[in-house]
Design goal:
Elements: H1 2-37, E1 39-48, E2 51-58, E3 61-65, E4 74-77, H2 80-90, E5 115-122, E6 126-132, H3 141-153
Antiparallel strand pairs: 1-2, 1-5, 2-3, 3-4, 5-6
Amino acid sequence: LFFVILLVNLNRMKLHILLFIFVLPMISCSQRTADISKVKSINYTASTRGFYLNIEINEENILIERSRESDTSISKSLSDEKWQHLITLISKFDVRNLDKMASTSNRSQVDASAIAILEVETENHLYSCSFDHGSPPEALKGLMEYMLTLSESIE
């Protein structure tokens, strides 16, 4: 009887170990998907002494500011297609690693380029990355090109 109980307990332990091995990676993958599906806004700011660009995008609107003065902003509604395309572009990289992405140049350190900051806001976090305007990290190029195209199309 003792050996039967021991054998049953060993089988349960094996089952728990197998569940742990297979379920834990699935939870990790679903957390990344959850962050992407809960994107609330995407903000891009590039500035230097004589240049300013601010692009704020949420599910409903896009706001563009080309001057630090508040009366120069332009706002327009954003279609579901464009928002979904932005989400698709964001899904191509892990937003949780946004702050670890390396800039492709450092020209903003000597005022040769505007410093740019990209922020992706989800329900629970604000992820950000800084780089030179016009030289985003490789993983962000598609997103940045699309955001800049959107900003030019509403003016």
